[in-house]
Amino acid sequence: MQIGWAKKQSKFMNHEGYGIGDDEYSVAYDGCRNLLWYAAKATPHKNPSWKPGDIVGCLIDFDRREIIFSLNGQSVEPFRDLFKTYHHDSKSANDDGYFAAASFMSFQQCKFNFGSEPFVYPPKNTKYKRFNDFAHLLDNDKIILPKHKKLEILRQTKISEEDCMLCVEEIANIILKPCDHSGFCEKCSLKLDICPICRAEIDERCLIENKKNSFSEKTSSTKFKSNKRNHNSKIRYEHS
Question: What are 175-191's pLDDT values in tens digits?
Answer without folding.
Answer: 999 999 999 999 999 99
